[in-house]
Design goal:
alpha/beta; 7-stranded mixed β-sheet; 3-stranded antiparallel β-sheet; about 30% helix; globular; disordered N terminus
């Protein structure tokens, strides 16, 4: 369980800053989307379960303004955030987030799934639920993949507010991080900064934890920067490591906590309940009491 406490910086009178609006790129030339764009050489090549109607690509701020206007018109008062999830495998965390969004726990919608493995379980789940699948990056195993500039155009076209990594094994390009400052989350199956970095993923993490003699492990939700697993920690859960543990048993306990803590973190992100301490550490405001931090 995570203790609900007021952070030291808050008790000393330091200011906290809520998550700022993502940076936009002024002067972006609108580009056609959909069937018209497919006729151009620089079209975004992505798999779509349902091909969208032709539309113009707008800067993120313009898309958000249109969505806010629509929400004001229907009286909802609070815009549901638009989420893009990146996966490379079965996508169990993606499924947990998608189910939470459908059930109302997360005030947002998964509007696109990005993958480097178009045949993975996460991509199949997206297709079966009518979620567009974008293949990135282009590679020998995925020649239909797209380039970074095309990925950014696709995400803008879907009006994406936040990017969520859920078992995506590729390093996120700097261009995407610059486009979505403080707006990209990842979940890692260890208590970072321990057992993180390039090469630490899946069962490799749990084998290393057991071999080290560590008595505790658990998932970490963190913001993403230009390196593997070095962004600021947002939330963690702790599970014990038993004397007779196997990587499979430990992985199952950690995964159970992943599904819960990631959904809680995404819910806070979509409800604008992330505050930033002066030293750059993100904190989650309690849903019941905004003066309490988790």
């Amino acid at each position: 369980m995570e203790a609900a406490v007021a952070p030291p910086a808050l008790r000393q009178g330091s200011s906290l800053h809520t998550n700022p609006a993502p940076a936009t790129r002024p002067g972006q030339t609108p580009r056609p989307w959909g069937l018209a764009a497919n006729r151009q050489a620089n079209a975004v090549r992505c798999e779509l379960s349902r091909r969208p109607e032709p539309r113009l690509l707008l800067p993120r701020a313009a898309v958000a303004a249109q969505q806010d206007a629509g929400d004001a018109a229907d009286g909802s008062g609070s815009r549901r955030k638009r989420l893009a999830v990146f996966v490379s495998g079965g996508g169990s965390n993606f499924r947990a987030i998608h189910e939470a969004a459908l059930g109302g726990t997360v005030h947002g919608d998964v509007v696109a799934l990005v993958t480097d493995k178009p045949g993975c379980g996460g991509a199949e789940h997206a297709r079966s639920n009518g979620i567009p699948v974008v293949v990135f990056p282009k590679s020998k195993s995925a020649p239909e993949g797209i380039l970074v500039a095309e990925l950014l155009d696709a995400l803008r076209g879907y009006g994406v507010d936040f990017v969520l990594l859920a078992g995506y094994l590729k390093l996120i390009p700097a261009e995407l991080i610059q486009e979505y400052p403080r707006s990209i989350l990842n979940i890692h199956p260890s208590l970072l900064p321990a057992f993180g970095g390039k090469g630490f993923y899946g069962s490799k993490v749990h084998k290393a934890v057991i071999a080290s003699g560590a008595r505790y492990s658990g998932p970490t939700v963190h913001f993403v920067d230009e390196h593997y697993d070095t962004g600021k920690t947002l939330a963690q859960r702790v599970v014990p490591v038993f004397a007779d543990d196997t990587p499979e048993l430990l992985a199952a306990r950690v995964l159970h906590e992943e599904h819960q803590v990631y959904v809680e973190a995404v819910a806070a992100l979509c409800e604008d309940r992330i505050a930033w301490r002066d030293d750059g550490v993100p904190l989650i405001k309690s849903q019941l009491n905004p003066d309490v931090y988790l």
